[in-house]
DNA sequence: AATCATCGTTCCGATATTTGGAACGTTATT
DNA sequence: AATAACGTTCCAAATATCGGAACGATGATT
């Protein structure tokens, strides 16, 4: 069970340990709130002494990770953008996958995503779409639940039945649409099926009118577990259409994993 | 000089204070290296004891800000993307400026940027362009020098002559092209001119073949200092063309500052 | 305009974490 | 196989954090 040791803790809040961990927990708390948040409000949500919280916030501001607004509310600092820009540009998996994502987009004409598993969330690493109707950055970096996204289910299908079983009770199955799978057992069955078929689906489970097909990608040692998907509005993605994408997505995933083995060396 | 107190320290490396500051310095060091970097290499660059560095790295990995690769090299973690995604989406100034940037793009047909001053750097907050030839994320979050970018010079023109004077010795004037201003005195004159004219230029100072016109935007208290710009390849941006953009950029900047006053309230 | 309540900041002894040198395994190289 | 370089662990000493309480600022209410 060595691999478990450094696994990121569940995406739930406030279990950071050490000085850094506590500070990042505060940062996360500000991030989760999608608008400027004031001192007292933060104080209420993280149970810490006033003095302590005040110093932590000051340190975060000093580092440029937070900014204080005129009304003493806190927002995320632009320095985070700089870090992320580097994290994105230098991510080896993303660089390797990129041409394959582009090809998949050309073959299907639809939006293609790549998302990596982190704890109980999927974080989108890349996106290829034709029309720039939706804003850039609209998806990259976004964190979505594993249980109602194609990429999330595909990623989980990389893990063993037992590992998934252990995750289930920590997942907060929340109903997003009438099609969302909210029963852990049903969900587990869907993962089993994805594992044997090599593809996972999202039929309007996260958002009404949006469907997708996804396939898993991972390193041999499962230290990197992710998924790629083709997403389209439901009216363009009937069952027959979706079925036609399955092989394309699977092949793209296989090609990416091939490249990963060749360029990064086989892992364990 | 109260305003100086919490100003982000110069973008140079390794002057973080406190436990958090030191950890973020290490993170920055990894970020600056554009490829995976190994323990010993980090050790050489930050003069810290082995044991200390080892623990700091472990903590950063534990928090998901770094990842360790199979060969013990370190890369930035995807958790940074999640933070940045929120920082971008929720940035009030960006949200306010966005429609104006779009309009400016429509009026000129060229790429429009918005960048904010942070220490001695400009960090790009937004970008609007028609063709998606260049990858998304290609610019956002990017940190560029103040002294050879239109946005950087525009931003500096918001500051007093004295403040700029104090910054000069800390700026590492590096020659990017034959047109780069590498003499502090000449550069200071350019800023003075930008201050009186309300626009700054970049005539292939950062990159051969790229020119731009930029205008400053800022809050009354200068806690937010930024610039917007229209950028184009030199063959499409002759002197007459650029001159035609000046008023458009200035007007867009004025409109953004109007909106800022209305929506955020006048600051100081 | 004055009062009161809420909010944010500062202070300092107690506490827990970090620090840093050295010794110990582990992996690559000759 | 021997050697060197690298990464990890350990623990007493140093130091930053912790956290309660007092203080000052802000702004809402009468």
UniProtKB/TrEMBL annotation, chains A, B:
- Which SUPFAM superfamilies does UniProt cross-reference here? GAF domain-like, Winged helix' DNA-binding domain
Any matching Pfam family: HTH_IclR
Q: Which InterPro entries match?
A: GAF-like_dom_sf, HTH_MetabolicPath_Reg, Tscrpt_reg_IclR_C, Tscrpt_reg_IclR_N, WH-like_DNA-bd_sf, WH_DNA-bd_sf
Please report the organism this UniProt entry assigns to the protein. Answer: Pararhizobium mangrovi
- Source taxonomy lineage? Bacteria, Pseudomonadati, Pseudomonadota, Alphaproteobacteria, Hyphomicrobiales
GO BP annotations, alphabetical order = negative regulation of DNA-templated transcription
UniProt keyword Magnesium present: no
Give UniProt keywords alphabetically.
DNA-binding, Transcription, Transcription regulation
Segments forming domain IclR-ED: 79-262
One of the entry's Gene Ontology molecular-function terms is: DNA binding
Q: What is this protein called?
A: IclR family transcriptional regulator
Q: Which stretches make up the HTH iclR-type domain?
A: 17-78
């Amino acid at each position: 069970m060595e691999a478990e040791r450094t696994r990121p803790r569940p995406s739930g809040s406030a279990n950071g340990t050490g000085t850094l961990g506590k500070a990042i927990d505060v940062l996360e708390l500000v991030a989760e709130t999608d608008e400027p948040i004031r001192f007292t409000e933060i104080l209420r949500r993280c149970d810490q002494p006033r003095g302590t919280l005040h110093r932590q916030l000051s340190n975060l501001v000093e580092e440029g990770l937070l900014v204080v607004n005129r009304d003493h509310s806190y927002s995320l600092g632009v320095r985070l953008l700089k870090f992320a820009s580097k994290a994105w540009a230098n991510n080896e998996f993303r660089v390797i996958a990129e041409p394959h994502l582009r090809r998949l987009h050309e073959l299907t004409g639809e939006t293609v995503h790549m998302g990596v598993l982190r704890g109980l969330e999927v974080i989108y690493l890349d996106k290829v779409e034709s029309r720039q109707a939706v804003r850039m950055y609209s998806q990259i970096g976004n964190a979505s639940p594993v249980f109602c996204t194609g990429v999330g289910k595909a990623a989980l299908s990389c893990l063993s039945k037992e590992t998934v079983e252990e995750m289930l009770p920590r997942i907060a199955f929340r109903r997003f649409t009438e099609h969302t799978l909210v029963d852990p057992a049903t969900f587990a069955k869907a993962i089993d099926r994805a594992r044997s078929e090599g593809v996972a689906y999202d039929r309007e489970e996260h958002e009404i009118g949006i469907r997708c097909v996804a396939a898993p990608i991972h390193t041999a040692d499962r230290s990197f577990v992710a998924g790629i998907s083709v997403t389209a509005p439901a009216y363009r993605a009937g069952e027959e259409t979706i079925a036609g994408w399955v092989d394309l997505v699977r092949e793209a995933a296989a090609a990416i994993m091939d490249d990963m083995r060749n360029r990064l060396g086989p892992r364990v």
